[in-house]
Amino acid sequence: MIGPVETLENGVTVHQVTDDGAPKSNIYCEFPWCPPDSSGFVFVRRTPGGKWEYVLCRFGTWEKQPLGAGTACTMAGGRFYFRRDSAAGEPELVRADLSSGRMETLDVPPQALAEGGLCLSADERYRVYSRALSFSPQRFGITVVDMRTGQREVVLEDPYLCNTHLQFDRGRDCRVLVQHNRGCRFSPAGRCELLCGSEGCTLFILDIPGGRVVPLQVGPPHTVTCSGHETWLGRSGEVLLTLNLTADYDLGKGPIMAVKPGQAARPVCPPREMNHIGVPDCGRLFCADAFRPDEIIIGSPATGRAAVVCPARASYKRGTPDSHPHAYLSPDLRWVVFNSDRTGAIEIYAASVPAAMAAGLL
In the chain, pLDDT over 70 holds for what percent of residues? Predict the structure, then answer.
């Protein structure tokens, strides 16, 4: 059923947005998959033919517009991008204006899109991605691609860059946030045997295109290990993250922290302990979710105030990442988009955030 499914005492109404039962995801929640005017959002679903299709959905009406099938996607500078195969079988880059629904294919050398993820700078100049270089010895590398020339260069090699979650600074195109799973271990055949060792997960900033590493004071010895859920705090140059108080990465959670280079991490909205976290570009509020207690919250990094929006009623089924809510907040602070399998199938939901709730946190 598409439409309202739950109205809570705090004034929030939860809407079910999809009901077709097809495999789908609201896409991971580090930033909102919305245009700056918050007219809609993008989700991904698997077609009957087995392809992953990106779909634009309008808030309130839940009208849907398929954008096309692709192999990777991102948001950069308020625009949506995805990589697909051309009629000639070569990779091409599509840019979509989510406010109008208009799409165009960019003139990019095919070799600039040849492998890896789609972490793109807002000016469309650089793409970065990570990949395994060798498993005997264990080495991973971060590659910078010049989107004008197609030139690719590995600017950093390290044995523990297995799960980097690369993100360009939304305020400065010359910096990328990198997750560092210290102590991870892979077999010579490439099978992951340990995602993160006792050294703990930390974060650093990588200068682009030069490759200079700037460490952040999170993870041992500064704090307990990072959870692996982090994002830029809007355009502020600060990073927002959650820590992990348990080794169980599926269900784990911990304090919310903010950190910038050269400074100790500061607690945000204590004593809240959350898991996944996302921030719109304004950086005024963040959104986070947790399994136990089952709740999605929004909070202010400046005032330290937070409020529960709604329960996700999601199972967090082990081995099924899209059964996690992965909740994010729209740029206008009016909607929270999340996954839930409350009906038995993973569907997309949107919770309306009362203006008074958001204003009361600022």
Answer: 99
